[in-house]
Design brief:
- The complex is a heterodimer.
- By secondary structure, chain A is mostly beta strands.
- Chain A has one domain: 2-Layer Sandwich (Alpha-Beta Plaits).
- Chain A contains one helix and four strands; from the N terminus they run βββαβ.
- Chain A has a two-stranded antiparallel ribbon. A two-stranded antiparallel ribbon of chain A has the order 2-3.
- The longest helix of chain A has 5 residues.
- Helices cover 39% and strands 16% of the residues of chain B.
- At the A-B interface, helix 1 and strand 4 of A face strand 1, helix 1, helix 8 and helix 10 of B.
- Strand 4 of chain A pairs antiparallel with strand 1 of chain B.
Chain lengths: 69, 249
Amino acid sequence: MPEVKILEEVCKGCGLCCDNVCPENILILTPDRINSNGYHPAMVTDMKKCTGCGYCFKICPEPAIEIYK
Amino acid sequence: MKMIFGRPLGLTETLQRYCPGCGHGIVHRIIGELLVKLDIRERTIGIAPVGCSVFADEYFNCDMIQPPHGRGPAIATGLKRTRPECIVFSYQGDGDLAAMGTAEIIHAAARSENITVIFINNAIFGMTGGQMAPTTLPGMKSTTSVKGRDIGKQGFPIKVCEMLASLDGPYYLERCAVDTPRNVIRTEKALKTAFANQISNKGFSMVEILSMCPTGWGQTPVQAKKWLGEVMAEYYPLGVFRDLSKEEK
């Protein structure tokens, strides 16, 4: 079962991973939480659907995404 | 649980000071992974450009040098000739490579120096505030072409890959983009080939990477990603422009 860990303090909330990148469409920007830099970090809505393809990691400029399997 | 994707050893823990949605970070991550995958991190010398990525020496976990504007290929030539056992890559933006460093890149390519050049093309001078660059598209707005680039006054953009492909020297030239995961994977392959060519002493390799500059373009990161795929990749077609390894077979 793959697990996506988003480093919220590293994420700059650009939203590249949230826009038609995830095949399962389970990534969004948190609407109600900000990190210490003032950005809304990305979050996974339904971890059970994740297949661990790594597309979100590939497009992440920071990289603020870690995937464990 | 084992980490299958994460920050590679080729990058330091320093947080990158790029704007949200900037393509530099994606290319940094690819290079950081390749330094580990090809087992060349200990003997690699990178060359940081002048531009947003001028602090690349803080981000890459290998030896780095920061030369004057545009002189990356010249410094790389000297490094590679004096230390042929080292792997030398020059990381340059479009202001650095296509404006100030045009002479250096053309002559390094013509001499077929055994170096790897990574050319980030975002069609604008990003660091200085979004001015028009030699690679700005016709009709594209920037802070010094507020009504759009007028080809009657400011001329046509330079297509660096096509220009260098007219020389006999280069061994490998490819243009990629980092707007979608598919293109990022292609970029990974292209950069791997470019480094592998240098390891096997083949000659000059350059990979041009079309990259987003949301701040300079005045767009959101997601709009910039779409604009790159729809408009910029139309003007600068992606593909391999020179690969002498295929001709050798």
